[in-house]
Amino acid sequence: MLPAPHRATRRLAALLLSSAPAVAIAQPAKAPVAAPPIARAVAPMAFVPLTGTNVVPVVANDYAFDMPATIPAGLTTFRFSNKGKELHHLYLVKVEKGKTADDVLAWFKRGGPPPAWLRPVGGPNAPSPLPGGETVFSSVLAAGDYVALCVIPSPGGPPHVMKGMIKTLTVTPSTRTAPTPQADITITLSDYDVRFSKPLTAGKHVIAVKNAGTQPHEYFMGLLNPGKTPMDLAMFAENPKGPPPGLPMGGITDILPGDVVYLQVEIAKGEYAFMCFTPDAKDGKPHLAHGMIKQVSVK
After folding, report:
1. Which domain holds residue 165?
2. How confident is the model over 4-24, as a mean pLDDT?
3. pTM
């Protein structure tokens, strides 16, 4: 989700930034402290690592990533949590040899289409802002040079990458092996749909996310407030006025056609929105405007 003017990113950011304080102010200041119904339905997941994976904790702060500078190639799980006052995500790109975080930042400031030397490889989208919220994202990383960045903007300010939230990651050659993760459900992203291999149910899941389209896709997942729809969530992202119609629940950042990544989730019962904000290669409109938006009932 890195369009030249970063318009789609700002739409999602508006949703994320507006949703975080909604949890804190859901009750009047003098009322007994109690989580709103949508918050009570969400509990932190008990993490169990995938077989053979290298677990990499990543903690986001305002405005930096606390994460290793070097990790071995192979199956990698990012446990992404946020200790900042603002919401953050981890957008990971692989760059050609000789390119650095400075080159990525220079392109970001300059704008224009993504350069050929930069390849998005996915990453954990912003976790729930509730205590204990995290996004658990796994993929197979090849050896090479990577750059991690956050493009969510501060309220009324620049994207966090402009405040220094960008870090080089070196993935070193490794002989370690791991079996392909055993997913119990597959989400297939295409032009322009989000399809599930079977109904999504409450509980723990290992989800394989596959891009079967012809251009990059992401997905953002939100837990809807009662009576609200995915389009309410999308419209709020475009014009964030009033209380938010849902709660961010993670997802993935852009992956390229043919790529497969994995998410470990624990999902509560409720109504969820799935949508793609990535701008279309032809007209620049977010993919949700082409129908890549869906409501899913979890029972």
Report:
1. 7-24+36-298
2. 42
3. 0.86
